[in-house]
Amino acid sequence: MISEPAFARRAPARQAASLYDDGVQIDRVLAEVDRAREEITDLAARLVRIPTINPPGDEYETCAALIGDQLRAHGADVQLLPAVGRLEHTPEHPRINVVGRQGGSAQGPAIHLNGHFDVVPVGLGWTRDPFGGEIADGKLYGRGSCDMKAGIAAAVFAAEAIRRSGVGHTLPIEVSGTVDEESGGFAGVAWLAENRWLSRERTRAVIIPEPFGVDRVCIGHRGVYWFEVITEGRIAHGSMPYLGVNAIEGMSHFLDLVRDELGPALAQRMTAMPVVPEGSRYATININGIDGGQPVDEIPSPCVADRCRAVFDRRFLLEEGLDQTRGEIAALVQKAQSRMPSVKFSIEDRLIFEPTRAPEDAPLIGALTDAIAQVTGRKASLVASPGTYDQKHVARIAGVPHCVAYGPGELAMAHQPDEYCSIDDIVSCTKVLALAVLRLANL
Ligand SMILES: [Zn+2]
Predict the structure, then answer these.
(1) Residue 362 has pLDDT above 70, yes or no
(2) Is residue 7 part of a domain?
(3) Burial classification of residue 412, based on how many CB atoms lie within 10 Å of its CB (0-12 exposed, 13-18 middle, 19 or more buried)
(4) Ligand 1 geometric centre to CA of 389 (Å)
(5) Which pTM was predicted?
(6) Residue 145's domain spans which residues?
(7) Ligand 1 centroid vs 145 CA: distance in angstroms?
(8) Which residues are found with C-beta within 5 Å of the ion, ligand 1?
């Protein structure tokens, strides 16, 4: 993990406490959020009505423009940032990010709120219009309502409530909307970090309002190692299979080892991170796909399969580390190879994300948990995510370890049919974000 003691050093606890204990200022900020309830809901609904489906990355320009216009109307200095240099940034599907900065000393590092505005495809099973932005029974419905356009609206209005309250802050506040989180975030947060829009110099702390719920702060996530195993044999006539070498048989040796040896070993390894749901507190492996021999739907010809590929999704723990994880897979492939030497085995890495965790004493964790207690009267819980999100890019590329996720919506609603987010939750999260950001911007 990257260690960043500078934030803690620059944080005089007394000053933080005095601002935080100032009930008048806090009440003013909270009152502004309540007053803006309709505006917050309206912005979230308007965002949902833009079908920013990824893949392929539809309507990004429209959505970035809407967020940019809103931030500009709130007095922010706004930049629309096309992800120049990324192959997926094309004329048909431009990848446009947006960053707005306001208040504080212009040069200082900012407190940054980031949300992705891409959404996953609709899927089957809807009884509501997925892009209608319909509001009923105190809920906003639609694809992306929970993951995570409600979070973006909360971020925009947390900053705005602070501005409207007139309560001062020394550090600037930034709000960004970014693309492609659902497909890895390379043209989104990773691009912002590579191009130094997010960096140690420019960014003090980042909160990503992903839908972990009103009283849960997500401190990080497990790592991802996607790899492909390829087996190559020798083609022959299917009536004389002993004259060929069957690549699918070779793959079956590896699958046996995954099931009988690796699977049980992983089920014994538990992380100290508070991953939810509980089952994902352990190391896991999934077989994502397999493809071998001739295509089954085509007219069959009698051949021995000379090629087989399978893709695996290994989620690894901070305690395991990437080197151990990769080494273990390589050793397992070697073992399969020794069981069937006539087949040629190889491994190709497909996608790697390191596990990430905010430092335990990060001031933003304290700021959020205190604000949650203040707004909801409940004790906050710290959780970690079973899957990854953009925190990895903030920590690894921007070099800003002070990053967590906190935002409205139930995690289980993400990517579901009839996805929704409770309006009360959006407003409560906006309050929590506003109080936490105000405190962090005065440290
Ligand atoms: Zn999300």
Answers:
(1) yes
(2) no
(3) exposed
(4) 7
(5) 0.89
(6) 14-221+356-440
(7) 10
(8) 147-148, 210
